[in-house]
Write a structure and sequence with these properties.
Blueprint (H helix, E strand, L loop, with lengths): L8 E10 L5 E9 L4 E5 L28 H15 L7 H12 L9 H19 L3 H4 L7 E2 L1 E8 L13 E5 L6 H21 L19 H15 L9 E5 L6 E2 L2 E4 L5 E3 L1 H14 L2 E5 L7 H11 L4 E4 L7 H10 L4 E4 L1 H4 L2 H13 L3 E5 L9 H8 L3 E4 L6 H17 L4 E2 L5
Parallel strand pairs: 4-16, 5-15, 7-11, 11-12, 12-13, 13-14, 14-15
Antiparallel strand pairs: 1-2, 2-3, 5-6, 6-7, 8-9, 9-10
The chain binds phosphoenolpyruvate and magnesium ion.
Protein name: Enolase
Function: Catalyzes the reversible conversion of 2-phosphoglycerate (2-PG) into phosphoenolpyruvate (PEP). It is essential for the degradation of carbohydrates via glycolysis.
Organism: Thiomonas bhubaneswarensis
């Protein structure tokens, strides 16, 4: 990471704002003695891994259904500000180490991972302003010229769309044949439009789920969703599997009960790990799928290992709930061969530096990384800059509706334009 000179922090403030579900979250601002400043807001998940760093909430049932973050704001304004004022904002690792030290718990439960991350991200932004560099270059981690392959979540199910007919949480479009990021967005937007028209022509709802994908009630839920996406790709004039492919996030933890996978919305089937993998294998033959995230539940490490052995040569196997952006779990995954890629979410671990470490561990092991939004988002496009900064190679930020999702893609369009000829865009599945 870039470490230069000294630029001491002068003040830190925070406030309660709302995320895309209308639930409180925290936004922090860090002001440097030079006058430079940066602000950042923290997102929130719904299908969370049990080992994620702790998102602290007030628990006062009379305010925001118990989900207020006034205590978290107070932690930033009090203890955290006191502990960080005067420290060098240009040394992100030292700032993050200090945040971890101030909290003093292994899972950031005392001050709250949301408090720590808001300040960590706002410091990175203030440092970028101080250096007069865009955030993706200021972080100083990678070459910062690789635009991520985007994954657009166009059909929402699972916990993100309780009234849809899909048990699987995310059906994503991957414009892997596009020549550059800007064209990739166009391929996906045109296909999303075709999907809308298809749904309308079939008399289905085009209301959207938490991540902006459509959330219809289709006959045979999960398989029908894949079929519909293939039709939408064709209707938009593209070639399935060549121009655009499919990525899935079943988020299998959310339908894993008593040691079996229960697909209650699509026919009440019950599957063992092995049968789930059989199902995925069948789907690989039927649909142009290039990536499956959380195909197994977070505790089903042996299922993940089996899935990676059977399908890992053909597709990307991504861990999310099981790795929670934590080097401890990712290292176990590398040792046990339970995936070949990791999802990366800043708020699962709680500081920018630890997130960078998680990415770098994956990269050293030859694993791919997918930088991810959360289902409860804000308009903050931090992850777009972050994905470019660390040469992540892939990013998912929901669909092509809802501005909190588009803020990230739009920021990448800006970065792509800014980098011009220098911008690289690589199909990670080749
Ligand atoms: C983005 C996701 O959802 P959430 O933020 O609800 O964990 C995910 O599971 O990948
Ligand atoms: Mg996931």
């Amino acid at each position: 990471m870039n470490v230069q000179l000294q630029s001491p922090i002068a003040a830190i403030d925070a406030m309660e704002i709302l995320d895309s579900r209308g639930v409180p979250t925290i936004k922090a601002r860090v002001v440097l003695q030079s006058g430079a400043s940066g602000a950042a807001a923290v997102p929130s998940g719904a299908s969370t891994g049990s080992e994620e760093a702790v998102e602290l909430r007030d628990g006062d049932p009379h305010r925001y259904f118990g989900k207020g973050v006034r205590k978290v704001v107070a932690h930033v304004q009090g203890e955290i500000a006191k502990g960080l004022v005067g420290r060098n904002a240009l040394d992100q690792q030292a700032i993050d180490a200090r945040l971890i030290e101030l909290d003093g718990t292994p899972n950031k439960a005392r001050l709250g991972a949301n408090a720590l991350l808001a300040v960590s991200m706002a410091t990175a932004r203030a440092a970028a302003v101080e250096r007069d560099l865009p955030l993706y270059r200021s972080l100083g981690v990678g070459k910062a010229d690789l635009l991520p392959m985007p994954m657009f979540n166009v059909l929402n199910g699972g916990l993100h769309a309780p009234s849809s007919s899909m048990d699987f949480q995310e059906f994503m479009l991957v414009p892997l044949g596009a020549p550059g990021f800007t064209e990739a967005v166009r391929y996906a937007a045109e296909t999303f439009d075709a999907l809308r028209k298809l749904l309308q022509s079939m008399g289905h709802s085009t209301s959207v789920g938490d991540e902006g994908g459509f959330a219809p009630r289709l006959g045979n839920g999960n398989a029908a969703a894949c079929e519909l996406i293939v039709r939408a790709i064709e209707r938009a004039g593209y070639r399935p599997g060549i121009d655009l492919a499919i990525a899935l996030d079943p988020a299998a933890t959310s339908f894993y009960q008593e040691g079996e996978y229960r697909l209650t919305r699509s026919g009440h089937q019950r599957y063992s790990s092995e049968q789930m993998i059989d199902l995925y294998a069948d789907w690989l033959s039927a649909y142009p799928i290039v990536s499956i995230e959380d195909g197994m539940a977070e505790d089903d490490w042996s299922g993940f290992a089996q899935m990676t052995r059977r399908l890992g040569e053909r597709i990307q196997i991504v861990g999310d709930d099981n790795f929670v952006t934590n080097v401890r779990f990712i290292q176990r995954g590398i040792d046990e061969g339970t995936a070949n890629a990791s999802l990366i979410k800043l708020n699962q671990i709680g500081t920018v530096s630890e997130t960078v470490e998680a990415v770098q561990l994956c990269q050293r092991a030859g694993w791919r990384t997918v930088i991810s939004h959360r289902s409860g988002e804000t308009e903050d496009p931090f992850i777009a800059d972050f994905a470019v900064a660390v040469d992540a190679g892939q990013m998912k930020s929901g669909s092509l509706s809802r501005s909190e999702r588009l803020a990230k893609y739009n920021r990448l369009l800006e970065i792509d334009a800014e980098l011009g000829e220098r911008a690289r865009f690589v199909n990670p599945y080749r």
